[in-house]
């Protein structure tokens, strides 16, 4: 089940979207999320959906792969759609099924909200699919750099995040090992009442925590002897360079927002 | 010859929880010269890991002094000295900081403020030195233990250190990984004249050393060339250390009444003596 989930996974590639600077991508996504709320009629929602599909096309992510991975979220979208069909009671009646009636406004709003949701999920997924976690952390660090003025430990946060990401597979392996060791000792995780199952997880978590702390200590020593003294006076191995295409992304965003304002119906 | 590191009457005591104090290091002195390969051996709790921690300034001695590159190690010069020493620890996973091989090798360079233009060639160079040049973008969980340790060595080499300390760096590896690591260090030492201190209980590593230091109960028990050390077979076994197969066999042969002239640490030497032994009579 976990293998199928693509939310938050990175798929290496070489498309236009892949090669963008993480800063322009992050900035774009952040602003795009806000801009999505500008849409309020068929034209604007249509524009957003078309734009998102275009981005997916440019990123060369296969649609089948994308939708297959987002199935659990698609279910949520269909659910919202149905809720609107059932509970919004405005406008003309479209369908009278005796037990309940479906109204025009309900269908409209349901579709709009679903598109909004779908567009947000698709765009953020495209971001994580086309950008390696390390680039995302790098991009975040540089984008948040101005916040250092207000004493936000930007470098430390970014380092914490990258170390956390680096240790996920290591701790997964470890969990697997402990699980097998406990199973070999006769621990039963798959049957019994919920309470019993929760209790069976404890012997799994305790060794995992103990070893994680041990690892943290070793890692701290290894970092110290390699001269780590916090962000001051540090240089960076990963250089971000803002190129023409990144400026283009920002221009595209401005054009998109202008178009949204233009097509937006008066409210 | 230039002095690289020296310990001068160093002592260190650990406070244990029940208030009892135990001397982990008791009046130890020795000197390491430029280009030497030193092996420090001893069973668990003999104080050999405490020695490593003092050489890199993670612990400071209570008595005596640790001198690195002719400077007394203290809180002032510790970062400068650390930047000139490479150290590789036991657990391959727990010292891998970067998310890919090249990020990890660059970590010490970033910390020490090396400009970007110099970083790239240095990362590539040091990875080539440990035969890991083709692994730039590999993630740690796709590497074997031996490969991770070689990356750790590359990370140390990137700072172009004069001294490399291996703190049981091969003890968690499979035989193949261990051979890879030992071979890399051996090649490095021969091509670049790097000074190596390896804290170990692997006999193969001990045999490669120019000088062996045997630690027992926080005290320096013996120092000498590997073959001199292994001549003290029984004393070593008494403090819980293994002997190479050839040394053990020659001792048993002697006990059985076979005359053996020299001390042999490798099987080849022993076989050579045995098959020519008849001529010597």
TrEMBL record, chain A:
GO CC annotations, alphabetized: plasma membrane
Localization: Cell membrane
Keyword Transmembrane appears in the UniProt entry: yes
Main location class: membrane
Alphabetized UniProt keyword annotations: Cell membrane, Membrane, Transmembrane, Transmembrane helix, Transport
GO molecular function: transmembrane transporter activity
Domain of life: Bacteria
Sequence intervals crossing the membrane: 26-58, 64-88, 109-130, 246-263
Classification via CDD domains: EcfT (cd16914)
InterPro entries: ABC/ECF_trnsptr_transmembrane, EcfT
Subunit structure: Forms a stable energy-coupling factor (ECF) transporter complex composed of 2 membrane-embedded substrate-binding proteins (S component), 2 ATP-binding proteins (A component) and 2 transmembrane proteins (T component).
Family according to the record: Belongs to the energy-coupling factor EcfT family.
PANTHER family, sorted: PROTEIN ABCI12, CHLOROPLASTIC
Name of the protein in its database record: Energy-coupling factor transporter transmembrane protein EcfT
Organism: Sporosarcina luteola
UniProtKB/TrEMBL annotation, chain B:
A GO CC annotation given for this chain: ATP-binding cassette (ABC) transporter complex
Keywords attached to this entry: ATP-binding, Cell membrane, Membrane, Nucleotide-binding, Translocase, Transport
Domain ABC transporter residues, every copy: 5-242
InterPro entries, sorted: AAA+_ATPase, ABC_transporter-like_ATP-bd, ABC_transporter-like_CS, ABC_transpr_CbiO/EcfA_su, ECF_ABC_transporter_ATP-bd, EcfA_1, P-loop_NTPase
Main location (coarse class): membrane
Entry-linked SUPFAM superfamilies: P-loop containing nucleoside triphosphate hydrolases
Coiled-coil residues: none
Gene3D superfamilies xrefs: P-loop containing nucleotide triphosphate hydrolases
Gene Ontology molecular function, alphabetical: ATP binding; ATP hydrolysis activity; ATPase-coupled transmembrane transporter activity; cobalt ion transmembrane transporter activity
Localization in the cell: Cell membrane
Topological type in the membrane: Peripheral membrane protein
One Pfam family here: ABC_tran
Family: Belongs to the ABC transporter superfamily.
Name of the molecule in the record: Energy-coupling factor transporter ATP-binding protein EcfA
Organism whose genome encodes this protein: Sporosarcina luteola
Gene (UniProt): ecfA
